[in-house]
Amino acid sequence: MMTQGIWPAVLGRFDWHALPFVRAWENPTASEIIGAGAALLVIIGAVVVVVLITRLGKWRYLWSEWLTSLDHKKIGIMYIVLAFVMLSRALIEAVLIRMQQAAAIDNAGFIAPDHFAQLFSTHGSIMIFFMAMPFLVGLINYVMPLQIGSRDVAFPLLNSISLWLTGGAAGLMMVSLVIGEFSTGGWSGYPPYTELAFSPGVGPDYWIWAVTLGSIGSTLTGINFAVTVYKMRCPGMYLMRMPLFVWTSLCTSILMIFAMPALTVATALLALDRYLGFHFFTNDLGGNMMNYANLFWLFGHPEVYILILPAFGVYSEVVSTFSTKQLYGYTSLVLATMAIALLSFTVWVHHFFTMGQNADINAVFGIATMTIGVPTGVKIYDWIWTMFRGQVRFTVPMLYSLAFMMTFVLGGFTGILLAFPPLDYLVHNTLFLVAHFHNMLIPGLLYGMLAGYHYWFPKAFGFRLNEKWGRISFACWVVGFYIAFMPLYVLGAAGVARRTQGMFDPIFRPWFYLAGVGALILVAALGALFVQLWVSIRERDANGVFAGDPWDGRGLEWSTSAPPPEYNYACIPRVHGRDPFFDAKRRDDPYAPPASYDAIELPKSSMTGPMIGVVGAATAFGLVWHMWWLTIIGVLAIIATVIARSFARHVHQIFPPDEVKRTERRWLRAVAEATPTSREVEMTSVNQGVAEVSS
Amino acid sequence: MSANEIKHAGLNLGDTDELTHGQAGSAVFGFWVFLMSDAVIFALLFATYGVMLPATVGGPTPASEYKILSAFLETLTLLTSSFTFGMVSVAMKHGASRRQLLSWMGVTLVLGAAFLGMELHDFTTMFGDGAYPTRSGYLSSFFALVPLHGLHVFFGSVWIIVMMVQVMTFGLDARVKINILRLSLFWHFLDIVWIAIFSVVYLQGLIR
Q1: Contact state of B44 with A298 under an 8 Å Cβ cutoff
Q2: For an interface test with B, which of A264, A265, A272 has the most B Cβ atoms less than 10 Å from its Cβ?
Q3: What is the ipTM, given to two decimal places?
Q4: Residue B100 falls within a domain, yes or no?
Q5: Which of A99, A159, A154 is nearest to A123 (CA)?
């Protein structure tokens, strides 16, 4: 029916079998039913959200206060919400992968090979591009401008556009669950397998366009953050006085600026192959897939450090604050960060030692890879020395930092093993590698992001998170990680290939069972995190820290109310050292009101970001399904939006001095009324956000 | 700005207003950073071109397809358009009449369009010889690199039109000036990329 008349032009290559419900109806296997169930979950989730917002009458509020907002703090929060949603999905997929491998020993298991391949492809793509990236970008967005004493990022509108491009791309990932199928080519999408000859379906196209939208968003974010750090620092905030989180944000941004284009080029060339019949990576007519491996990992390796550096920044802040000590070896930490950023561009070949270049090249890249261990080791020692003889408190962020130091070093050791090309040959493409990079990224990214989430949450929302549930969640993340991934080292060393849907040797069974239990504990960890949020919101009045400084903080971000006003600082601060607020508390009164207040100008909300994100996703959807009309309309609409926006002139709002004064007075009154808290009781309800200062 | 005030070497945005200058600093620096990111894209496409140059698979080769005269004329046209855009900046700096400003922009636009026309003519000639991007890896890499530059010139031309309309609508307010400044960076950047294309793609192809 849909192959006649106007339908092919309208619907492209869509037909009913693109819907997982139809597939499950016609072929009711466990695998198809799981697929249909996932699709149903997406639809139900979307419907529940829409109904809930409508019932609460919050559409207007949501639109004008959040979705169109150009406030870096709100954009940061939205990024992190997106990260949590995507984390939930990708973690469930991880559990399915574990369950299938545990079930499929000398047995078909319950997930078909094709479906299994989609699972590991989406798991990887989502965790990297739509969990890790939004989380760290959100955290930087929220914290970095506050830390450098700025009122916003350099390009607030661009910030919103980046958010919405990322959101649109994540939406496309969700749509791929409901309409069609996803790529089976893994998160790295290697051709020639992902070429038309071997993957003619829509899967690789979903992957290409979701990743492309996301990478454009990330490039723009990198530009935005780098310019913000270079140009928007408050008076006295010299480069070598910046908090370490700002330094790592800067290095991450520089990596984004120079590494993300490589991904854009790789996916664009693959798209040219698939859509227009070019021959970049095909098997015939001069195609050269090695070039894809080079392009992809030229992005892919710096990407690892894009992910890890912000977490290093968080640990530096957390360890220093919760040890009440100045960060040890500040200069060496800055240099180590820069060294890592630089070295990250010199090691990409270690991702494909086995692909046929000569031994000398492998040796060079192997040595370069091992070199990265040096600056990283410097950092670990610096954090340990920071704790030495400090007043260490085992708060949740501190616990994550400690777990990170132990676990990350372990992962680093296996990384050094993999850096030897001859050893790499033995475990290449096995579960040993999977264990290694999870061993780096779970402590090196996830723990860091969660530490940052716990550490800055009171700043963003004005109340502390529940300690008990925080500790339960922490325990699950750590125990779950070890139980889930240590067995994979054993299996990988025994030669089990990664991404394998079924196994034959029963000797592997106990290890897979163990890893499966670990995965379930990790789900419990995420569940505990959500329970913690729920409990904390209910107890928010008892744990309020409106005064803004719950941890005897060191940086500028603690010197304003929690949550901070839209303009962050009524008067732009002036900085005299590396720990400006910590020192100010000990020197004089940091809460002294200024003589007078000035009017403050900030950008107004704009619908440009949502427009570009939604239309961008629609354009990508049109490309995936060959609905050319949608693509053409989409591209024209984006160009028109950009041009129309360039004609807008009244794009600022003014906060009059009286309003600023009222807001500030209210906060300063709260500060005066609060009882200063000593460090011993900062985890209890006594904490009202003013630190007791003993000088 | 009074006529006898001494102008500094860069673009003068108006009265010595620190805030505007600060904003302009971020805006222009941000655009530089964007161009560097864009330069990485071109660099990778050049590298890809270099890798795929031998992959002619018995089809058309650089020597058989490139026409030196046409490439040279394109180079001259684009370089001249960079000069005329320089005249736009000079006109803006010295407060020339709006008509003068607009006519230099117009000349740049015409040169940009002429360049695109000649480039399209080159491509159709190549197609006539059977040199399609689908023919070989070498041609794929050529048609990813050179038309991407052309696409940039096209969007640069659209941007010139938009800025002409904005000059007519708003006059030279701070935002228009900053955007013309950014556009000029973009246009000169395309010139530099083209010089690389002319040397690496066309000249190298013809020397072989």
Answers
A1: yes
A2: A265
A3: 0.95
A4: yes
A5: A99
